[in-house]
Design goal:
Layout lengths: L3 E2 L6 E2 L9 H20 L5 H8 L3 H9 L13 E2 L6 E2 L6 H19 L11 H15 L1
Antiparallel strand pairs: 1-2, 3-4
The structure holds zinc ion (2 copies).
Length: 142
């Protein structure tokens, strides 16, 4: 049977459902998340520091929840995550609305230019050859 060492607590466990950490840690993680949620339900608009102090959950973990979209940054008074592209403060996810739009447009453009990339026909005749043939016809004309 496939066993793994939990990267968090080093317990040996059987990974189930693609879990990276052991069931004990999963439960702890869930409890942390629930604590943060509970606190925010009771004190909406708390500061990040208040939540950290009250729940014992570290700031990075809370910011991770926000990035994963499990908690809104707007639930906090001051928590802000930044757009990964332009560093604008956003409330959830990885990109601001503007960058999301920009990115979608860029993707569309990339797809569009790919489609219109039909092999360009050589409409310009090669000037060198033309001159050469012209020379010949000149000679023949005489
Ligand atoms: Zn563990
Ligand atoms: Zn942005």
């Amino acid at each position: 049977m496939n066993v793994k060492n939990c990267p968090r607590c080093n317990r040996i466990f059987i990974p189930q459902g693609g879990r990276r950490i052991c069931p004990v840690c999963v439960r702890e993680e869930e409890e942390k998340y629930e604590k943060v949620r509970e606190y925010l339900r009771e004190y909406p608009g708390a500061t990040l520091l208040e939540v950290v102090n009250a729940t014992g959950v570290d700031e990075d973990t809370i910011l991770q929840y926000i990035k994963e979209g499990r908690i809104e940054a707007s639930d906090f008074q001051d928590a802000a995550i930044e757009c990964e592209r332009c560093r604008t403060p956003i409330s959830s996810g990885r990109l601001c609305a503007k960058c999301q739009g920009d990115l979608a447009r860029e993707l569309q453009q990339a797809a569009g230019s790919f489609r219109s990339q039909t092999p360009e026909r050589d409409t310009k005749s090669r000037p060198r050859d033309k001159m050469f043939t012209a020379d010949i016809t000149d000679k023949f004309d005489k």
